[in-house]
Design brief:
The chain folds into 2 domains: 48 residues, no CATH class; 81 residues, OB fold (Dihydrolipoamide Acetyltransferase, E2P). The strands form 2 sheets. Strands 6-5-4-7-8 form a 5-stranded antiparallel beta sheet. It has a 3-stranded antiparallel beta sheet with strand order 2-1-3, covered by helices on one side. The chain is mainly beta. It contains 1 helix and 8 strands, in the order αββββββββ. Bound molecules: zinc ion.
């Protein structure tokens, strides 16, 4: 399967600022103007206080590994090369995000929980995906 056959995200009115951010090389998530909670995934109301006053902010792109699975099953449209790592990472700002890990062996020995990670941006079609790799201090 070629890269052209992979699924490309389609921004909606709610998610467009997120995708505009990845194109600009920034990880942008929502932040509540009323309670200051960082929010991901994009939505209309703050999950902490219910406010609809959610703004957008660029975050650090730093995270820690919360959970992962190493998949040996090709996922047409999403992942061609097996095995690959599907991960849930916890952003330093709080929210968790599902993503793929790159620049790391798909091997539990290389994937300790709480591993420091940093975002990298991977073009796909006319969009750019946020993926994560071990942070500089974790790469030896
Ligand atoms: Zn709030």
């Amino acid at each position: 399967m070629t890269g052209d056959a992979r699924a490309v995200p389609v921004p909606t009115a709610v998610t467009r600022p997120f995708w505009d951010g990845t194109k600009a090389g920034e990880l942008r998530i929502q932040r509540c103007d009323d309670c200051a909670e960082h929010v991901f995934h994009p939505r209309a109301h703050c999950p902490a206080c219910g406010s609809s006053r959610l703004g957008w902010t660029a975050v650090s792109g730093r995270a820690r590994l919360s959970s992962y699975v190493i998949s040996d099953i090709p996922a047409p449209g999403f992942a061609d090369d097996v095995p690959y790592v599907i991960a849930i990472v916890q952003l330093d700002e709080g929210p968790r995000m599902m993503t793929n890990l790159v620049n790391v062996p798909p091997d539990p020995e290389a994937l300790p929980l709480d591993l420091p990670l940093e975002v990298v941006f991977a073009p796909r079609g006319d969009q750019v995906l946020p993926l994560f790799r071990p942070a500089a201090e974790a790469r030896t």
